[in-house]
Records
---
Amino acid sequence: MRSVFRVPDRQSIWDRRLILVTGKGGVGKSVVTAGLARAAHKAGKRVLVAEVTPDVSTFSRLLNHFGHAMNKGEDPFEIEPRLFGARITPSTGHRLFLRAALRVRILVDTAMRSAALTRFLMAAPTFPEIGALYQLVSLLRDASFDHVIVDLPATGHALALASLPKTVLRIVPSGLIGDAIREGLETMTDPAKGGAVVVTLPESMPITESLELCESLKKLSIPVRAIVLNKMPRDPFTGEEKAELEAHLSGRTEPLLGIREYKKLKRAIVARETFRASVPPGIKRVEIPLFEGKDDRAVLSEVTGTISAVDLEARR
Ligand SMILES: Nc1ncnc2c1ncn2[C@@H]1O[C@H](COP(=O)(O)OP(=O)(O)O)[C@@H](O)[C@H]1O
Ligand SMILES: [Mg+2]
């Protein structure tokens, strides 16, 4: 007989090969992706870290963390021993697909230089995603990586990428594209193979949106492994001090130095409570402090430390 209770998932995120990092822009997706990659690499894993960008000439904030912001290559490149970087773009995927289909490299490269063809491929709503997914599948075929960690573009794109396979499979069930898409779908939806990490901020709207995103991903059968609450401000006050502050503030209307920061802190604390109370069981909660006044390099080092300290295991 099947138990009525959901069997909790106690495996660590590090048991999976594919980790898709998603969330709204500016929440810290890229630094969290870089931190996950650094943490896995430090733990001795062979890691591929990739960012989905519109094209090869876009500045990659993710790869910038590794000193390769402008890398234009199609293939993964070595950053350090056991650590590789890649850029995933629709056009690279299209090119890889055409090459596999035609097996004539020169012809494909010439065709891809045609502005008309590129415009055509980028104009259809699902074609850019098909390209990105095709390249992702090609990268996943390299079995030497323990982890492929992907910094996805804005939330909408992540959902488009995730919902793409089923739509495409209905139209092209087999052949090169069909097979690649099926492979991608299997890796994205098999809890033993991959999952998503959603990044959010300690503010009420972003938290609501990220919980909705988890729901949408669940509907697409993409397992969400963890939600990361990033940039949580430090609370320098004791309960007593806060009570005194509140008493001091009550009824005052004139502007006070630091009041905006204090109100922001209060909102962040409320948001964190919502976050702690509403993340569904089975999804790990990770909280990363706001590291104020630090440059990108120092922030990444702190974020890596925080991520290394939690083993991203399911909560219950
Ligand atoms: N926990 C943190 N503390 C301080 N700064 C952070 C933190 N997380 C991210 N940042 C900074 O916020 C900015 C946006 O982060 P980024 O990872 O590029 O966001 P996204 O990829 O979601 O657009 C960067 O300058 C980054 O250094
Ligand atoms: Mg980014």
---
Amino acid sequence: MKPPLTRVCKKCGEEKPLEEFVKCSKRKYSRTHNCKVCDRIHKTKWRNDNIERCRELRRQYRKDNPEKFSAEFYKQYRKDNPGKNKAASAKYRKDNPEKKRLAWEKYHKDNPEMMMRLSAKAFLSRKIGIPTAELPEELIQYKILQYKLHRKIKEHETS
Ligand SMILES: [Zn+2]
């Protein structure tokens, strides 16, 4: 049997083309009986009503997919190598106070990406209220992109 061209939405009662309905492989003709507009309204409402639950889902996802969050990886590394970097860098600082300052300045200049990353992490940590080590990599990347965008806009303004 050929699929019908239109379907009536169970929520708003409007007749719409089949492709305006939410995809679902288990349903007849691979579409649900809710149109995309109603679905979006429903989802937004659900999200607003379940902010806590959403947060919980995200947390659970992070827990189930640690490999996707490199921060988790570094946390583990620090756990497995306690004090390793700390002790070494403290000694270096003590032995080379002036060198350290110059190195830091050079580092700033040579590593704009890394500086953006640090700023992004500090910003997000403040904004969301979770430790920098627990920030999802995705968010950090978004923030860095924003910095880059601002930088590009400035370049256009001054040129
Ligand atoms: Zn509808």
